[in-house]
Amino acid sequence: MPIDQYFGLVLGHPQYGYYMSQQPFGLEGDFITAPEASQMFGELIGVWFASIYQAMGSPKAVNLVEVGPGQGVLMADMLRAAKVMPGFRDAVKVHFVETSRRLREIQKQAVAREGFNAQWHDNFSDVPEGAMLLAGNEFFDAIPIKQFEKRGDLWHERFVGVSGDDALGFVLSPDPTPAVLIPSWADGSDDESIAEVAPVRSAIAETMAERLAAAPGAAIFIDYGHAESGVVDTLQAMRVHKFADVFEDIGYCDLTSHVDFGELGKALGRGGAKVLPVMTQGDFLRAMGIEARAQQLLRKATDEQRDAISFNHARLVADEQMGTLFKVMAAISHGIAAPYPFGEM
């Protein structure tokens, strides 16, 4: 079985898939995302979208879309922060791209607390056309990947199969992969190097960019990954905030890979969007004013709250935590000026 097929089944099987049956998020789950760590994360993205809305000419209607919305915390925080821009909240129509019925109920409650209803879609292509502001936090890391391993001068696709001890493991296709399917950045790699490609991820990004080419808008994607393409093995599993074996406790562990932002940017460009230079999460949040927002929250906080605010502030921006590993990539419609803090490529 190809790795991408295995990846998709582990996460998305209708009955046994991880996102269909488990509670991934928060202290009681397997990982904590940036929106759950601190309200500051979503608030600053909401302010960024508000500035884009103004640059778009403040349209009377705009689709505010989130893909892979988790528990709806990011959307709720963005909507609350949108109060800073007159007319923005009145123009917004909230859309979630979410397949889990269990998570949809949680998301419904999250946006209801901000006075909003939402529409849900199984696929991004089902989102209505028109002006759009699109957010994806830790979305692309959950899209299946393929892996190829170099043996001698040839590349072979990695599969999931049964090893000699009757346990699941990686096996190589006996037939070499046509060279045209291996990206040029893998040329000259050492023997046993691993090249990861994500054709589904790229196809989704192209579709999103096509919307930005057809109507005014912007998209922002935040995920862990590398800014430039290169040979690396990043397939991993997480359970209870620790790394796990990708072949153990199938359906009970999150399965992810690091996002190749080099390839993601190319896909967005092919779709017709204007792609802005990738930034680290720490640099983006600092540029958007997280230090000032943290001080504002601290002034009104109890001693216990101050400790949590400071701890989670560091979690978001510190190099040794999420600040450097997580990257931020934005894409906008041509005709819209590159927004702060990004410059044009």
What would you note in describing this structure?
The chain has 345 residues and is an alpha/beta fold. It is 36% helix and 23% strand. Strands 1, 2, 3, 4, 9, 13, 14, 15 and 16 form a 9-stranded mixed β-sheet that branches. Helix 4 (39-55) crosses helix 5 (73-81), helix 5 (73-81) runs parallel beside helix 7 and helix 12 (303-317) packs across helix 13.
List the topology elements.
Layout: H1 3-12, H2 18-21, H3 34-37, H4 39-55, E1 62-67, H5 73-81, H6 88-91, E2 92-97, H7 101-112, E3 118-121, E4 132-137, E5 146-151, E6 154-162, E7 168-172, E8 194-197, H8 199-214, E9 217-226, E10 236-239, E11 242-244, E12 254-256, E13 259-260, H9 261-270, E14 274-275, E15 279-280, H10 281-287, H11 290-299, H12 303-317, H13 319-325, E16 326-332
Helix pairs in contact: 4-5, 5-7, 8-9, 11-12, 12-13
